[in-house]
């Protein structure tokens, strides 16, 4: 199904007239070399044609990973990512999208997660742990937002369990949101479903207030990014777990005793490094682990963020 998108609307909303067709957006795009997605070509078509036709189910715009390289590289301050999200939004409104996206969005609306899992199972990862639920009357240092993938994926539930043990070892007073925790909406918004995102945001903000979440810690860089940058008017402090652990190490509330004979590296997540300039805390943690040999990737920190 073809969907017609108005070019003048995109030009006025995103200052596309500033584009000088330098190609830095496409040159830095991690998927452009292996796909038909061409960011510069898209902006050029928007400038030259009154309207654009996209196949809502097969559009190359779904290949964009929303890493934000195109926006960070643009010398004219254009944000091609926002253009892509707006076009996706119109494709979503057409009602004809790939079944996987349709099912994920429907599950998020019905169950608060994109995995098709019941809300009642969201807290099963902590069934045998004594983890308190956040209560506004309790004096908590932070509220731990676990996130959908970590809560439901058996391979990743061990991350949440390990996080609980680390926080308890450091003597941190914390709580979780339990089965009332819902999807942060980061991917929902980047798929273009603005209406569902706003509903998730409104409900989550209300829940955070009810549970006294003055300091919110996330597992996922994506959850961290959306809470920190797109959840206005949330007035609490949003932190990624690497920031919290690094602070605990610096305060000497947490230390490592087991020596590891490992050689490791670290890949900067786009939503943590590129979009929020958090580079040093994860490396600081690795540097404190005895017997760990750290090998930096050639492209790292700002070099990875803005190649």
List the helices and strands and how they pair.
Blueprint (H helix, E strand, L loop, with lengths): L1 E5 H8 L9 H5 L10 H10 L2 E5 L13 H5 L6 H14 L5 H13 L30 E4 L2 H5 L4 H13 L4 E3 L9 H6 L2 H17 L4 E4 L2 H10 L6 E4 H10 L11 E3 L5 H5 L5 H8 L4 E3 L6 H5 L2
Parallel strand pairs: 3-4, 3-5, 5-6, 7-8
Antiparallel strand pairs: 1-2
Radius of gyration: 21 Å
Secondary-structure element series:
EHHHEHHHEHHEHHEHEHEHHEH
Strand segment count: 8
CATH topology of the largest domain: Rossmann fold
Overall shape: it is: globular
Q: What fraction of residues sit in β-strands?
A: 5-15%
The biggest sheet amounts to: 4 strands, parallel
Q: Give the total of domains.
A: 3
- How far do the termini sit from each other? 37 Å
On the 0-100 scale, what is the average pLDDT?
93
Low-pLDDT stretches are none
* CATH architecture verdict of the largest domain: 3-Layer(aba) Sandwich
The secondary-structure class comes to alpha/beta
CATH classification class of the largest domain: Alpha Beta
Total of DSSP H or I helical runs spanning 4+ residues: 15
Overall helicity: 40-55%
Placed side by side, the strands forming the largest sheet appear as 4-3-5-6
Molecular structure report:
- The chain has 307 residues and is an alpha/beta fold.
- It folds into three domains: 2-97, Fumarate Reductase Iron-sulfur Protein, Chain B, domain 2 (Orthogonal Bundle), CATH 1.10.1060; 119-250, Rossmann fold; 262-305, no CATH class.
- It is 44% helix and 10% strand.
- The protein is built from 15 helices and eight strands.
- The longest helix has 17 residues, at 194-210.
- The radius of gyration is 21 Å and the shape is globular.
């Amino acid at each position: 199904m073809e969907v017609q998108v108005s070019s003048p609307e995109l030009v006025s909303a995103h200052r596309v007239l500033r584009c000088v067709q330098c190609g830095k957006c496409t040159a830095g795009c991690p998927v452009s070399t292996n796909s038909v997605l061409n960011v510069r070509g898209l902006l050029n078509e928007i400038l030259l044609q009154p309207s654009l036709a996209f196949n809502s189910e097969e559009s190359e715009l779904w290949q964009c990973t929303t890493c934000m390289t195109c926006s960070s590289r643009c010398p004219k301050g254009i944000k091609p990512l926002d253009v892509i999200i707006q076009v996706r939004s119109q494709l979503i409104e057409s009602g004809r999208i790939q079944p996987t996206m349709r099912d994920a969005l429907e599950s998020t609306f019905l169950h608060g997660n994109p995995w098709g899992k019941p809300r009642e199972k969201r807290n099963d990862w902590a069934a045998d742990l004594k983890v308190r639920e956040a209560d506004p009357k309790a004096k908590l240092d932070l509220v731990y937002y676990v996130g959908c993938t970590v809560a439901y994926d058996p391979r990743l539930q061990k991350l949440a369990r390990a996080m609980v043990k680390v926080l308890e070892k450091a003597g941190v007073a914390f709580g979780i949101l339990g089965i009332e925790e819902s999807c942060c909406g980061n991917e929902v918004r980047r798929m273009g479903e603005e209406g569902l995102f706003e509903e998730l945001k409104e409900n989550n903000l209300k829940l955070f207030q009810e549970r006294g979440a003055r300091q919110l810690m996330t597992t996922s860089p994506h959850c961290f990014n959306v809470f920190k940058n797109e959840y206005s008017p949330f007035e609490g402090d949003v932190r990624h777990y690497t920031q919290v652990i690094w602070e605990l190490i610096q305060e000497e509330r947490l230390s490592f005793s087991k020596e590891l004979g490992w050689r490791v590296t670290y890949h900067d997540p786009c939503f943590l490094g590129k979009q929020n300039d958090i580079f040093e805390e994860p490396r600081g943690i690795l540097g404190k682990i005895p017997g760990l040999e750290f090998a930096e990737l050639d492209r790292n920190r700002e070099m990875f963020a803005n190649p």
